[in-house]
Amino acid sequence: MVERSFDQLVTDLGTRRKDGEPPVLLLGAGASAAAGIPTLDALIEFLGYKDHREKFYEYIQSESPDGVYRQLARYLQTQPQTAITPGYQALATLCAEKCFDLVLTTNMDPLLDDALSAARLWRRDYLLIVNGMVRLIDRLTPLLKAARPRVKVVKLHGDLFERVMAWTKAEMDTYLTEIWPYLQPAVANRDFLIVGYSMSDERVRDLVESSGGSVWFTSRSAIPDHLRDNTTMRFVVDSRCAFEELFPELVKALLPATPRGVLDPTIIGGLSTSPLGSTVLELLPDELGHAVEQTPTALTMDDATAATLAVKGPKEITATAFLLAEPRVIICDRYSSDANRVGDTVHLVDSIGNEFSANIIASNENYPFGPTVLEAPAELRVPGLRLNPDPLLVDDEVQILVAAGTKTGVSSGKVTATGISSTIAPIDGDVGDLVELESFVAPGSSGAPVVDASLSVLAFIVAGAEPHTPRAFAYPAQSWAPMLDGLRQDS
Questions:
Q1: Average pLDDT over all residues of the chain
Q2: Does 429 lie in the same domain as 478?
Q3: Same domain, 207 and 89
Q4: Got the DSSP string for 178-204?
């Protein structure tokens, strides 16, 4: 048995978020019970079948789907129905902030659906897949493989509102048998985090253990007897692992700079000193050919990911760049872009792996890191980031978006010093006008946007420190934003 502490779990999740490699999250009935949803035993008792479980199953199977829905609808929702519990609010925030991208749940209730709708995720950002409703052969595989929507929620045992639900062990086995050939490739070589689930279902346990990744099992009190001989899972037993405590604790530990609640459109315009631009939504096709709404300005972390680009050299990704909304141009670190430019163009890769070249339209030759400004190609039809040239202050909390291949990792941090000079190899001599950050940054960080909680750009990264050292340097927007004024006038 491999035991791990709560703090080790937090550190592991933070590293995964930075590297763009989130675990698969598996939720069980404990998540719903903690939010006030009755357990199966409580439902059986409510319907008058206490101590007669088999008769309850007979009753469920004899009823029509609509009849089951009418009996159980108000008991499979929170009371009042408009309430979203702190645990589910926090989980939705973690999904929005790239800590999780695939959630498997055995629960049939709408708690996570409601939380995602209320948090900073648009419908284009997440996909709800109900086992028993999807035509598996021709739809499930491309849905699970699609880069967007990034967040997928798979309801393994059906869904209350779809009137498709598995109650008996035989029904659950059938549901999992049908989805297995399509779900197994999606979780191959991926790690798992298990919350509120005992792993008593052998089929689900087989799915997890056959994935080939590491498995973190959380419990607030004890390890189930049937798992005690397991020598591969990492067990975290801590009172904070109860569902309604775990996810709020993770938000506090992993996302200090990103409070998330219901998005109020009336305050968006005040989040940055730069114009927001039009708020009219534009319908654009996603990679599956579906029409999805795109905003001209990034409002969610998925928007910010789409606006973060990789600079590609002859053989590999070498740096990061980002798309601004106003003016609509791409910003990159001049030192890195100069090393990889081809004539007057720079080769870029977007968040889903599309490659294209962008023309250089301006460059500050008087500062080692520029920036270099690139023309935004017409085919890059994604929202841009706002610009916030206000001065950074010590202890300001920030996030850093780093392009790493076709994924984007996110690091959180804070400002530790402003207006400083530092020697940054291989620049000859000290470089001034820098901001120091306490943050881990991954390879390929040069040019990475440093953003605030509203996803407005405050600076871009110019250098990190030694491996495993939480120190980085950034060039503040306050210094290079005036360079863009002429571009706005020209446009």
A1: 82
A2: yes
A3: yes
A4: HHHHHHHHHHTT--EEEES-----HHH
